[in-house]
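Continuing from the previous page...

OK, I double-checked the sequence for Homoserine kinase against my notes and this is the correct one:
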Amino acid sequence: MKDIKIFSPATVANVSCGFDVLGFCLDTVGDEMLIRKTENKGIFITKIEGYDLPLKTEDNVAGVSALALYEDAKPNCGFEIEIYKKIKPGSGIGSSSASASGAVYAINELLGKPYNKTQLTRFAMKGEALASGSEHADNIAPALFGGFTLVKSTTPLDILQLPTPSELYATIIHPQIEVKTSEARAILPNHIPLKDAITQWSNVGSLVHALHINDYELLGKTLNDVIVEPYRSQLIPSFDAVKKAAISIGALGCGISGSGPSIFALSKGQKMATRVENTIHDVYSKTGIDFYTFTCKINTEGIKVI
Ligand SMILES: Nc1ncnc2c1ncn2[C@@H]1O[C@H](COP(=O)(O)OP(=O)(O)O)[C@@H](O)[C@H]1O
Ligand SMILES: N[C@@H](CCOP(=O)(O)O)C(=O)O
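Thanks. Re-ran it with the corrected sequence; updated structure tokens here:
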């Protein structure tokens, strides 16, 4: 195989209570990437469409991740990367992760799959560090593994795959403003009150249990973030109004998607999810800020060849 085209999906990291640990993969929205072998050794980004991003390998998340794999594999060829970007950088639905994980997934396929998904995650984390200043894996893991994932540890890297309730739908509202993950991380405290930590890890454990027993009502109760949301919600216009409206119309829960500005809501069934989307659309229409919304199932497959 000399070339490959892939779909690299958007993802929702943190999932309210699970900062840097929990994440899930979205369907329908994602980047496309075309990667081909070349006789010229090295990693070359030859084309980017959709958003203005650096072509220089070392300045692009996809290039940095690809280089990490390339320097480990030492293949007797190089790779050219074309990125067809659909996820706006700084969106909060894993734009950097889609590039980082897509690049390593595609090159691994072209090399005959010498690496497993955990090893690919490690390479892709190098790209995330370029974007956010931190090697977090909570977007990359759901992109590569699909569904819900929990990053048990980063050293050693240990990713847990969690069950995905079959009737679960995600609704995303993406205000067209940029919130860089690096900036959204810089405003977080280094220390947290013990009582908040107890609440947070109680919710994480309960969320994992809810996924395992397919309990939608319990899942909704766990979507509560007392540590990060109080700081980051201040970066997102009308966040509180969106969250209140989504839950009042029947969403299981609602929170900041990743580092924002996107907001996610989870619902049981497509009918409720559509009702939630219509409601938050009406709320945001009053802000005067450009935005778009979409609703989709949880993507249990992750990155795929197209
Ligand atoms: N291939 C790429 N895809 C997305 N962002 C990239 C890429 N290469 C570099 N970047 C930079 O990374 C940042 C986007 O990362 P981040 O803030 O984490 O956005 P998101 O929350 O959407 O993942 C932007 O500053 C962008 O310029
Ligand atoms: N745990 C990270 C997740 C960033 O997600 P993104 O979609 O905004 O890149 C964080 O919250 O900083």
